[in-house]
Amino acid sequence: MEQKLYLVHLGYYDPELSGGVYESHVNLFFIGTDFEDVRDKVKSDMLVQKHKMHIDGIQLIEKVHGHKIIIDKKDGDETEIQNHNFRELSKNK
Description:
It is a single chain. By secondary structure, the protein is α+β, with helices and mostly antiparallel strands. The chain contains three helices and five strands; from the N terminus they run ββααβββα. The chain has helices at residues 35-44, 46-50, 86-89, and strands spanning 4-13, 23-32, 54-61, 63-64, 67-68. The strands form two sheets. The protein has a three-stranded antiparallel sheet. A two-stranded antiparallel sheet has the order 4-5. Strand 4 and strand 5 (67-68) form a beta hairpin. The longest helix has 10 residues, at 35-44. The protein is globular and about 40 Å long. The mean pLDDT is 92.
């Protein structure tokens, strides 16, 4: 089955932040065949379980600025993300 890229918007109440009164959010990427598959993967994710997160929304990302997203399976199960903060990207260095 074809795998697709999904962005999942998760909410949670962290007792260390504002005593857990306000809801915090995080966005995580998941790969799956459809929304139900991704929902199941999110619910079984250790980080999601640890922070008792709930799903606020799931978006299927098929195309960005005219470019189709193609999922190509590589060895291993790890996630690799390259991060750069706004200072590194600033033209005023």
